[in-house]
Amino acid sequence: MEIEGLEMIDFFKLTLPLDSATSTQLKSLLTKTEIAYRRKGHILTIKPDYLYLVRKGAVRIEDENEALFSMLGEHQWFGYSVQLLPYTHLCQEDTLYYRIDKAYFYALFADNTTIENFFTEANLESSIQSQNFIKKDSLLSNSVLSMSRSNNAYLVDKKVSISEVAQLMHKKNVTAVVITDEKTVCGIVTDRAFCTKVAAQNLDVSKPISDIMTDNPISIAHYKSGVEAMLLMANSRIRHLPIVKNEQVVGMVTAADLMRKQSHNVVFLVNEILVSNTIEALEKISKQIPLLLQNSYESNMDQHDITYSISAVGKSINQQLLKQAEALLGPPPIDYAWVVAGSLARSEQIAHTDQDNLLILSDEYQEKLHGEYFTKLTHYVSDGLNACGYVYCPGDVMATNQKWRQSLSVWKSYFKKWITSPEPKALMYASIFFDLKCIYGEAELLDNLLTKVFELTESNTIFQSHMAANALHYTPPLGFFRNFMLDKNGANKKSLDMKKKGVVPIVDIARVYALSNGVRSVNTQDRLRELSDMGGMSSSGANDLIEAYKFINSVRIKHQSQQIKSGCLADNYVPTKEISSLDKKHLKDAFRLVTNMQSALGSRYQTSILS
Amino acid sequence: MRLRFLTEYHRKKLLKKAHLPKPLSQYLSQLSRPLADNVNLIKDLEFLVLDFETTGFDASKEKIISMGYTVIKNLRILPQTSTHILVNPKQVLTEKNVAIHQLTDEELKQGISLESAMDRLLLAMTGRVIIVHFDNVEKGFINQACRQLYRINALPMVMLDTLKIEQKKRQQTQQQIKSGGLRLFALREKYNLPRYNAHNAIQDAIATAELFLAQIEYMGKKETLKLKQII
């Protein structure tokens, strides 16, 4: 046998647990391997003398009650457990698989505990548990019919005109309709067809819909599970499946329907928020946020995407509370903008924090006429946020405070005062009120205010110097000899405050440069990128800061994720013993970089003249 | 079946010749097994799936540079039987061939002579039905080698062609064949078989073998399917 360069060997190397085998062992394994192929729908005969490995296709394992037990794809094994032999092994697709002599396999790897343990009963138990756990997931256990959002599929006769169908789809807010010929299904039209066939080919819209339909659409039986629908969609590269029962179309399931059903997924949470009508319902959903953080971290999501997702959930809760308040109090008498400040505005939230919000009212505002409405509205939302874990702001920077619930003109006068006569309190407010985002209502009100603000800040160098000096308030915890300066924080005696001393200095530096260069983004990484693009900051400096920010933030997220996993409340104090020596080295580099950027900021804005 | 009759006649005639080399006479005497097609069930037969890499298509002018083959038994491929034979064509390769097969002159010098290669091949072919994808190449080059080495005009063989099997199936179901649609990789994709990157005689032989299993599977009635039904 000459098997140099056989793809089977490469395939083995990428299959767990064979990645730990030697090349010689794999070649030897090949001598006891056979290749077989079975069609979709075929039930495999599993013999106890063999191990089986899926090379291409999918094998579905069902228990005695024909319930889905497990679904196997490429690189996955079956036949290793005696307990599972009586289960039905069905080819879910056309399947090419390998059959390997079991006795030979175990003898070959007798010295390799990794491989031995992989197939032991203990491992089997945990794999059954994990598979049972998967079974509980709504996506697997529910039938497709129960997860299609509108159980009604819209049936249209093939002679109906294209324009009429477009109107129907618009009115019913659906992305696909089923086309029938004498009441039997003959095609499907999705919103895509209007783009690729009607618009792109400039088709006459009075023509029958059958001209643009896809013939004989792929459908799915009503009792099939969500996973099967997903597989079918992925394999056929489609996003809509008519659901069939007794040869009748009874519904339609879309890729978006399936996406919504994956719990602890940001799209799922946001969708749940959007259909919540009470504060209690939102409160329940908000309890999932720590889990979202943990799951995102464990699935190796980028720190930027994690904070973005968590912030998206926070924003949705704000928006839904406002909708509930409006439903309760009636439509607002005048325009307003609900504006959030701080980490939520920057899309940099990772755990529940204080709520910082304010209201900008249109200049038609009259206390006597409108005061009561907005007092009630802001209290409803603020109380709701508090219930959802976004606790009241200790500094009372909330729209419930009349001081921060003002008309556009009053807000303009506030900012003018802070910028032209900077004093300590003004500067404190500045750091809060320069990261703003309107997330509900008339965004134009905030835009209008910011235009005025930037006019003032871009030309006012004294104010810039004050802001810069303020940004040097928190310094990275790095001592003279490059050792960490630790915080003595209650129980966490030897820990680093990764928020105040890690993230905040970078956020502050980015804000000062952004304000003096007219950059209106609020997300720190966005600010730094735009500053680098427009020359407000050297691109190497901006890139270094972004990398430092990412690293410090990822240490913080890892810490919080572990706290959540062990059932603790998440905080920003990371004990040094929790940080690996390599990470410590990187962390010191990151801190030193921030220190350097701070001194550069100091000399650039001549902060020394202020002291 | 006329083809079978001719092959059998040819086989018997050749066996009467004196001084046949041993691998050839053995091959011919065992050929009666795949030829006994009245009783031959596909599931009971042994198959040798074969692929050649050559310097060109014209067997009278070009040379074989490598042979790859693997065995199918009980309708399962046995990778342990997979064999890759490099043949020294005693001629310099053109650059074009090097690019396709990734075999360099240096490697081919390590190859064995055509005569030894044919000895090994005949041994592997003995008692087995031969399978190739697009039989013009392998049939032509095997016959050419036999003329050159054994002075016989053609080698009687029972040969299946996965390309012809597909062609016949599409004609029966009146499916249109797109240009290039019968190429090995295109057919494999149709049967949900994996895409392989390597392009050499042995990997292509395995690829063809997997395609054959898929084709048989799609014919159904695997337990009773006879060789004469697919030839």
From TrEMBL, chain B:
The keyword Nuclease applies. PANTHER family: DNA POLYMERASE III SUBUNIT EPSILON, PROTEIN NEN2. It comes from the Bacteria. This is Exonuclease domain-containing protein. The lineage of its organism: Bacteria, Pseudomonadati, Pseudomonadota, Gammaproteobacteria, Candidatus Pseudothioglobaceae. GO terms for cellular component: cytosol. Keywords: Exonuclease, Hydrolase, Nuclease. InterPro entries: Ribonucl_H, RNaseH-like_sf, RNaseH_sf. Signal peptide: none annotated. Pfam families: RNase_T (PF00929). GO terms for biological process: DNA metabolic process. It comes from Candidatus Thiodubiliella endoseptemdiera. The keyword Nuclease applies. SMART domains: EXOIII. Residues 46-221 form the Exonuclease domain. GO terms for molecular function: 3'-5' exonuclease activity; nucleic acid binding.
